[in-house]
Amino acid sequence: MMRLALTTAAAAAAAVFATTPAPPQAPAPAAPLSYVALGDSYSAASFVRPWNTDGCGRSELDYPHQAARRLKLELTDVTCSAAEVRAGLLGPQSELKGPPSVPPPGGWAAKPAQITAVTAATDLVTVGAGGNSVGFSEIVETCVKRGLASFGTGTPCTDHYARGRGAAGLDARFSALEADFTALLKEIRTRAPRAGVAVVGYPAVVDEAAGCGWGSWHQLGTVAKGDMPWLDGLERRLNALLREQARRSGAAYVDTYTSSTGHGVCAGAEQRWMYGIKDSLTGPGEQSDPPSELCRSIPARGEACTVLHPNLRGATHQADRVTETLTALGADRT
């Protein structure tokens, strides 16, 4: 009789446990979103330590890395110094400028087209390029030479590019960039139709001439002050093209210019987010860039010929704006 009672009790208990729902299982953590960063030296934060040494000069503190860490994204960063939209993003890139600025014996190995990093599995894409396509560094070099020849007087660079023989060539470069950027954004949509895409504009370089001294290589060297408004206008023209390209393709536009005004190369040392032509490096560590022969010939103290790129403050400012935009595109979904 006792055995029967125990058996009956055990059966009743088993029935109770069998009908008790199991505790809810915690949802599996979502896989991180895939983020691909395409771009040139302004996106790669060239000359901000620490950087890679394959000729692209890509910094571990560029805006793609900073934004990816903040938002816990899975990053593929293929940004590269000297990249153009056509030769670099859409096609292979053979011309590399570092840092390191002095290439190894035999030169740098060519890089595959950055666009190949974008796939159907990509969730987010940023594109920051166009300055090399319009020849910004060559234009600055021309302005330096013409400003030196005029002893800083007048507007020799403006005369050449806005009213002289350089005007037609510059207009042709802008037209080519417009066509190339249209093709680039179309290719991104084809490869990653569900990805959120953001076009990243350029930060203020010389939004005001106040504070710049002629012959200061920590700033614009021998560029004539009278030419600085034209250089600023050139950058705003480039940003306007990028903004319009983003609008036409349905991509977001990241405006880094407006929020960086007052922090260009002519700003005071603590307010400057931009390297001058020859400057001291920023970023942690002791990494250096042995100067080229041309860089050594520039009569100024400075660790490297940084040639008007964002410093660490500038790269962090870019990361702030990009993080905001990627968040709006759904990067913080959990």
Characterize the structure shown.
37% of the residues lie in helices and 7% in strands. A 5-stranded parallel β-sheet has the order 2-1-3-4-5, sandwiched between helices. With 334 residues, the protein is of the alpha/beta class. The chain has helices at 2-19, 41-44, 63-71, 136-149, 156-162, 166-191, 228-249, 293-297, 312-328; strands at 34-39, 74-77, 124-128, 196-200, 252-254.
Read across the widest sheet, the strand sequence of neighbours is 2-1-3-4-5
| Uncertain residue ranges | 1-6
Topology pattern, helix = H, strand = E:
HEHHEEHHHEHEHH
The secondary-structure class comes to alpha/beta
How many distinct beta strands? 5
Radius of gyration: 26 Å
Please, what is the average pLDDT? 92
Write down the overall geometry: globular
Assembly state of the chains shown: single chain
Helix content: 25-40%
Strand content: 5-15%
Architecture blueprint of SSEs:
Blueprint: H1 2-19, E1 34-39, H2 41-44, H3 63-71, E2 74-77, E3 124-128, H4 136-149, H5 156-162, H6 166-191, E4 196-200, H7 228-249, E5 252-254, H8 293-297, H9 312-328
Helix pairs in contact: 3-9, 6-7
What labels describe this entry?
334 residues, 5 strands, alpha/beta, 5-stranded parallel sheet, disordered N terminus, single chain
Summary of the model, kept short:
The protein has 334 residues and is α/β, with parallel strands linked by helices. 37% of the residues lie in helices and 7% in strands. The chain has a five-stranded parallel beta sheet with strand order 2-1-3-4-5, sandwiched between helices.
